[in-house]
Design brief:
The chain is 35% helix and 17% strand. With 333 residues, it is α/β, with parallel strands linked by helices. It has an eight-stranded mixed β-sheet.
Length: 333
């Protein structure tokens, strides 16, 4: 009897690992041709005036790395942290960060997340799945050590908004007093997400399934493998900022740059006040679905959908920037 049980277990394990490894190595993300890149428009971000862009500073993460961020400061007892979206970097927030600081709403800090930006240690990769959350916590802690801010507002756009939801649902969520979710990514199969995020994100689904199976039994040695590519417009890749684009993510970065698998649980942890803002013309997400999806999990949100505003426009349009500034300037309740 015992022998039969052990044989059955052995066969089951062989099948499980065979499937997991088969899925993992049967597919890899591929770059899309220029003809297929008809997703998100980046012109408003690329064409913005960056003549007053602050120089990069660095802060120290818990693993000893020095990570880059930009700082905009016009006084006030408030810290505002803005998290960029997938493939891009903190430079995207220059128009918004400048405007919020100029209104005297607080010190605005905009990091280039680990694995992104001008010269990352390993582009498109991190060390472990929760590292982006830890990095964000370390940035806030270092800013607070310099000045004890009375309020911390953490905002994020697209995948950055997803990271904010993950942050709120994790062990560091208490570090923020309020949140701003700008057209956030919730999950590939959430009612808010268009197919392939509107022809922007192309996952290697079989590889993701295989690596998820391996991670479910504690095997993480292959988490460095790339699992998703992004259809950055060719004019951006060929332009002066092309070298700063991150066109692929590893499994661990892609997983850590989004809410957890049970994204509704992370949303339910959003008990601090938050603003959800999106454009009616968003290419990647269904803006009208945000409120019913999120409000079913938490009642602490304010929702604003902007007519005529695109996915990138929610971070660059003056109407969007003013709306975010007005909400930030409001009371904490």
């Amino acid at each position: 009897m015992l022998t039969s049980i052990l044989i059955s277990i052995g066969i089951t394990l062989i099948i499980y690992f065979g499937l997991a490894l088969g899925f993992t190595f049967s597919q890899a993300p591929k770059q899309r041709s220029a003809a297929e890149k008809k997703g998100i428009g980046f012109s408003s971000a690329v064409d913005a005036d960056y003549s007053s862009l602050p120089a990069l500073s660095t802060y120290q993460a818990r693993n000893g790395s020095r990570l880059p961020y930009r700082r905009y400061e016009e006084g006030n007892d408030r810290l505002i942290v803005l998290i960029h979206g997938s493939a891009w970097h903190g430079m995207q927030f220059h128009p918004m960060a400048s405007a919020l600081a100029a209104r005297g709403l607080g010190t605005v800090v905009v990091p280039d997340l680990r694995g992104h930006g001008d010269n990352p240690q390993r582009r498109g990769d991190i060390d472990y799945i929760g590292q982006l959350e830890d990095d964000l916590a370390d940035l806030i802690a270092e800013m607070q050590s310099e000045q004890n801010y009375g309020e911390v507002v953490v905002g994020g756009h697209s995948s950055g908004g997803g990271l904010v939801v993950r942050f709120a649902g994790g062990k560091h969520g208490h570090q923020a007093d309020r949140f701003v979710l700008m057209a956030p990514f919730l999950k590939y199969n959430a009612p808010t997400t268009k197919p392939n995020s509107g022809n922007w994100a192309y996952p290697a689904t079989r590889r993701i399934i295989g690596l998820t199976m391996l991670n479910n039994v504690g095997i993480t040695a292959l988490n460095h493998l790339p699992v998703i590519s992004f259809a950055m417009p060719q004019e951006v890749l060929d332009g002066p900022l092309g070298s700063t684009v991150t066109t692929q993510y590893s499994f661990r970065l892609n997983t850590g740059f989004a809410p957890r698998s049970n994204y509704k649980r992370d949303l339910a942890a959003l008990q601090q006040p938050f603003l959800l803002i999106a454009g009616a013309n968003d290419e990647s997400f269904k803006a009208e679905q945000y409120e019913p999806v999120i409000a079913a999990q938490t009642k602490s949100g304010t929702y604003k959908i902007l007519e005529g505003t695109s996915h990138i426009g929610v971070t660059t349009d003056t109407v969007a920037i003013k709306a975010i500034g007005d909400w930030v300037q409001g009371s904490k309740s």
